[in-house]
Every structure is written in structure tokens, then in C-alpha cells.
Automatic annotation (TrEMBL):
<dbReference type="InterPro" id="IPR013740">
    <property type="entry name" value="Redoxin"/>
</dbReference>
<protein>
    <submittedName>
        <fullName>DsbE family thiol:disulfide interchange protein</fullName>
    </submittedName>
</protein>
<dbReference type="InterPro" id="IPR004799">
    <property type="entry name" value="Periplasmic_diS_OxRdtase_DsbE"/>
</dbReference>
<dbReference type="Pfam" id="PF08534">
    <property type="entry name" value="Redoxin"/>
</dbReference>
<feature type="domain" description="Thioredoxin">
    <location>
        <begin position="40"/>
        <end position="177"/>
    </location>
</feature>
<comment type="similarity">
    <text>Belongs to the thioredoxin family. DsbE subfamily.</text>
</comment>
<dbReference type="InterPro" id="IPR036249">
    <property type="entry name" value="Thioredoxin-like_sf"/>
</dbReference>
<dbReference type="InterPro" id="IPR013766">
    <property type="entry name" value="Thioredoxin_domain"/>
</dbReference>
<keyword id="KW-0676">Redox-active center</keyword>
<dbReference type="InterPro" id="IPR017937">
    <property type="entry name" value="Thioredoxin_CS"/>
</dbReference>
<keyword id="KW-1015">Disulfide bond</keyword>
<dbReference type="InterPro" id="IPR050553">
    <property type="entry name" value="Thioredoxin_ResA/DsbE_sf"/>
</dbReference>
<keyword id="KW-0201">Cytochrome c-type biogenesis</keyword>
Amino acid sequence: MQRFKLFIPLLVFVALAAVFYGVERKIQGGDYAPTDLPSALLNQPLPAFSLPALDDGRILTNSDIQGEWFLLNVWATWCPTCHYEHPFLVSLAEQGVAIYSVDYKDEALAAKRWLAEKGNPYKATIFDAAGSFGLDLGVTGAPETYLVDGEGIVRFRYQGALDQQVWDRQFAPQIANLSGELKASEAEQ
């Protein structure tokens, strides 16, 4: 029995390796995407908030970021993936895509410095130092991006970095659906 106890760590290691191997095979086969996390907010209004703007401290609320559809990007300077994603967001903003952001559990000075150095693609940045709005959004980590329609309804959520492939595969069809719904409702009137 004593000798068997010596093999317990090896058996645990083999079991964990098998689990990781199985998940990796599913990812490679396209059966599993770690970014496909459901959102409780899907087709629900954006949670109410009243938080300071990063740039000037004025209080922002839902009414300040409504209008036409927009992206709500959750980011932070401590997030390595956000560094990768940022140039693509700048490019989207240059193409006319409306992007608002939530600076999530971050330091204001670091975030201001980041935007000054890397460019600011955001129409406004909500400063969520405590993470309360992020909690209401259901944020599991940064970056996350939400597609919100003109009425403030969350239509889509993506966890992970945005790039051209993700934009083309995930966001473009969602935006086309929004545009189609808008045209259909205008035709009914």
C-alpha cells in the first residue's frame, strides 16, 4: 500500500494531461471555443450606471452613450490582450465605428497615459475603478466587447481580442442583422 501512494501524483498528472489533451483536441476541431460564453444580458438593456468619465471626471449614464448602435469595449492597462487589440480598435474608429469603453479595475493615470500614447478610439471612456459596472455586465475578464443597438439593448458579446478575423466572422453578421431589423422597422412605419 505504501508503494501505491508513491504513484498517486503520477496518476493525477496523467488524468490532468488527458483532460487538457481532450480540450485541446476540441479546440483544434472547432467543437469548442473558449470565447463562446453566454451572456445573461443578451437582448436585455445595458445595465444602468452612473460613473465618471476617464478624461474629465464628468458623470456618465446610459443616456450619454445611446443613439445608433455602438461597441462597448471593456479594457485595462494591466491586460496584455488589450495591448494586442488596441490598434484594431483605433482602425475601427477611423472607419467610423462608434466605440465607447469601460476602463475596468484600472488606475486612471495609467489609462490616460495609455490613450495618449496609443491613440484614443473611444467616444467616451467610463472609469470603473471598483469594477461594479463590469460586474453588472457580467465581465469575466478583459477584453470583452458588447454590441449594443440604438435602444441600448445588448445584442452580442465577445470575450477576447478583436481583430479583423473576429470582426468579419462574429461582428459583421450581427451588425448586418441589426441593419436589416432597422430597415424592416422603418418600412413598417
